[in-house]
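task queued by scheduler; priority normal; single chain, no ligands, no partner chains; default sampling; output format set to structure tokens
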Amino acid sequence: MRIRSQRQLYFKIQSEITRPEDELQGMSIRLESLPGYNNILSKVLADLIPSGRSKQTGRSGMTAEQVLKALIVQMRKGYSYRELAHATRDSLSVREFLKIPPFSKGFHYKTLQANIKLIEEETLDLLGAELKSFALFQGIEDGKNIRTDGFNTQVNIHYPTDWSLMHDSIRVLSRIMCYTHEDLQVPIKFVNHYRASKKKTFKIHNDKSHKRRRRLNIELIRLTRRTLGYSRQALLVMENYKSCKTTQEQLYLGSLIADLKRFLPLVENVINQAHRRIVKGEKVSSKEKIVSIFEEHTDIIYKGSRNVIFGHKSTITTGKSGLILDIDIHDGNPADATLVKGVIGRHEQFYGAVPNGAVFDGCYSSNDNRDFAEKVGIQNVCFSKETDELSSCSPSMRKKLRNFRAGIEATVSMLMRMFGLTRVMNKGFRSFRTTVKAAVVTYNLFILSRIPLRT
């Protein structure tokens, strides 16, 4: 019989029966079956609770297990914090994975962000080592044959140009001084050049005349220098200001002073490189350039004659199982040929022996690396695209190693497409490194959940 509406819901929420091959359930089983899982949760709990704070008082928040699993869900599904918060309220599989009681609310996005951000890089390294030890014990990965390649991950910045960097500098410094003068009534004197900067930036972007663009850039340099001078004078006044009425105003003023101290040297670098490039006509090396005043850690990575990446370079090593055995995130753009010794050294440190076979991309090739690999006892070492005269292994073995190396391209593709390493949205180099390692740990957990264990 069809009725108009249901008067009362059932007391127990009827959830869909989770299938054995469900992805999150499989990842949960593998994660909780790790021998050192309790130690990992203890480390996460230590990250969440600052030293000196009592663990027995305060409001009950997310458990350490929920925070760790929320990070795994975010990396696997590619959720933003708002989307992750919605999933904790709406998705039955996510709620079961996070062990949220049936009639409890999900988590607010600010709660998720505040907790996930506290997980340290060392905690993720510990979890990654535990996953590799588990794979070694189960016979999934023995580390006897490795393949190494690199990839680049972008930082969340716009394409840097001299005029856009100067416009960002004027905008940020003017905003800090406006907040200080209007909200806290601090007696600072300055002229807000934001509108003038915006107009000149628009004209530079659309003008096709090189002479007019150069003239507008020089005027923009002058405006940026004036704003920098106003900011330095304002900083002296702000540091000596003692008329804050409340503690909240004092904290607000302290945060503005901290922001101003952070941006002043960066803006000075922006003006310096713009003056050298535009006025003097010099070529500024990539090591001296700053490409963002918000993500000053960003590196300039040239990918041959194809394009330029603004972000960081990472090197990964995988084995026969497809698990990522090593990840190294570089600060700067070191030559690939200088990274081979570090890859082999970290592998030997974890497994207690060098691999029997190692294959690298062609950019890692050098005579020193071949000599080093033979010296430490690697039986078969191959660099892609090397000639028969340079190779130290037989043609048949070289063909097998080259085919083996091709499999790492799929791993790189999965990391970038499925685990969000095309572009990292988090701010700061610490958060960048944590995000990349969280993606690697989630990838390894995902791979282990799809491999049947021996009984």
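post-processing summary
- The CA atoms of residues 46 and 64 lie 9 Å apart.
- The first helix runs from residue 23 to 32.
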